[in-house]
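Per your request, structure below.
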């Protein structure tokens, strides 16, 4: 039989998970009657933990909003999820620039765990291997990320100190619509009200962000992730490539995702199957072209190179090498 102290801690764990818990629900989870639940609540209050009584038809008990509990209570699954999340965040570059924060948080959780659970989690961490190398991309500052997230939620303009790709520094005003992570980097996307154009910024290049007076209304049915991908596909690079590929959007996207290329899909003729293969207009930008011929070959679809001429030569050279290899005894 569980001791009263164990039940009190279980009650604290239930309340810590959030929301209002009815007396009947708590009594059922703890295996006691309603009067004992109230006594356990009094124990928590005596310990300085602000448990609030909520009256009414759907009343019960809850923790005071915003209260940060000194003890961290996690079950086995929750502890494993938190530690794996910290490890994955470090590997993929999704932690903020305060790199020691992830290390110290994991250490604190490890020290707070019962020894039995700690040994089991240590076994998982020691046996875990990754096929991808650790992320080495620059991470955003925590304060910048928090300030921009708050501005997105409350639809407030922000002023940012930003460094451009070529190293120029300046200050920008932005109506931020969303924060997006892609390929280990953080981005904020929105509209520059001064020029009325869509803008996307890498957060690791933002040195400071502060909210400005006023508010804005984001566009209806906005998809921040799609906006970032489209912006990356249209970013300025050394080569501008224009293709016509015979196939479906799904076939093309399998090798040329939205972050790499834009696909113009003309309206199908009346009565035609909208999912049938047809000639589609594809545009992309790249610093180098040598990776593109193998990608086009892997598509295995008819294509026409509209520009640049240099790409035609690279495709022919690849075809010659493949043919020579195929004929080799």
């Amino acid at each position: 039989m569980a001791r009263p102290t164990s039940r009190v801690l279980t009650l604290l764990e239930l309340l810590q998970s959030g929301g209002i818990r009815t007396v009947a629900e708590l009594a059922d989870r703890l295996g006691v009657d309603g009067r004992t639940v109230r006594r356990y609540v009094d124990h928590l209050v005596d310990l300085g933990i602000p448990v609030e009584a909520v009256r009414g038809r759907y009343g019960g008990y809850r923790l005071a909003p915003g209260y940060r509990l000194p003890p961290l209570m996690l079950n086995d699954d929750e502890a494993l999820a938190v530690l794996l999340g910290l490890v994955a965040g470090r590997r993929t570059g999704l932690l903020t620039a305060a790199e020691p924060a992830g290390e110290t948080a994991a250490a604190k959780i490890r020290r707070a765990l019962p020894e039995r659970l700690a040994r089991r989690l240590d076994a998982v961490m020691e046996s875990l291997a990754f096929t991808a190398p650790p992320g080495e991309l620059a991470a955003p500052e925590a304060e910048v990320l928090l300030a921009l997230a708050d501005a997105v939620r409350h639809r407030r303009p922000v002023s940012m100190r930003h460094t451009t790709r070529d190293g120029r520094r300046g200050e920008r005003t932005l109506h931020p619509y969303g924060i997006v992570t892609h390929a280990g980097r953080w981005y904020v996307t929105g509209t520059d009200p001064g020029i009325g154009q869509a803008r996307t910024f890498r957060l690791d290049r933002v040195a400071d962000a502060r909210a400005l007076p006023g508010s804005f209304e984001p566009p209806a049915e906005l998809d921040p992730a799609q906006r970032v991908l489209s912006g990356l596909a249209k970013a300025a690079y050394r080569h501008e490539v224009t293709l016509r590929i015979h196939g479906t959007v799904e076939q093309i996207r399998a090798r040329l995702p939205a972050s790499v290329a834009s696909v113009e899909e003309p309206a199908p003729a009346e009565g035609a199957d909208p999912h049938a293969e047809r000639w589609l207009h594809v545009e992309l930008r790249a610093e180098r072209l040598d990776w593109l011929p193998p990608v086009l070959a892997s598509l295995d679809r008819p294509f026409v190179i509209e520009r640049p001429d240099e790409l035609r030569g690279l495709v022919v050279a690849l075809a010659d090498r493949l043919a020579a290899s195929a004929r080799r005894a």
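The chain is about 40% helix and 25% strand.

Regards,
D.
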